[in-house]
Amino acid sequence: MRERTWISRDPEATEALGEAIGRRAAPGLVVALDGDLGAGKTCFVRGLARGLDVEATVSSPTYALMASYAGRLPLHHFDAWMEGRERAFLADGGAEWLDGRGVAAVEWSGRVVDALPSERLEIALSHVGPAERRVRAIVRGSGERADRLARILAELPAIPGLDTVP
Predict the structure, then answer these.
(1) Long-range contacts: 91-95, Cβ < 8 Å, 24+?
(2) Domain architecture of the chain: domains with CATH
């Protein structure tokens, strides 16, 4: 399965989805996140961090460009929202962090899509209601890493508050 869509009923369900993916993550996973302000990108990353056994508090790295967290696998959390971040991301060696031994989560990834590896998990979040979000996950690329991501998507357990959209 290379694509799945859900309706998340609340932030806890979005975090739980991130956690489920984090529990199954392998080194080199790149999660490319896009969505409007307040759509749940950082919420998803908080869950991803929990699934990686990160104990630190995760917040949006909007003004810092990147935050790194120690866990079962290191988590590198990037934010490309601010104007000019694309150039700063590349100049600061962002591409090297994306191909590392940890997990990388890139918010506003559409701004740096040319720097992202071809094998990645794209997560698009959009508002459906005050607390509800549409979460669309797509595996990009082909190869061993993409195949592993497709298996992760296919094998995710049912999550309370997260309804699959056919």
Answers:
(1) 92/65, 92/66, 94/66
(2) 3-165 (3.40.50.300)
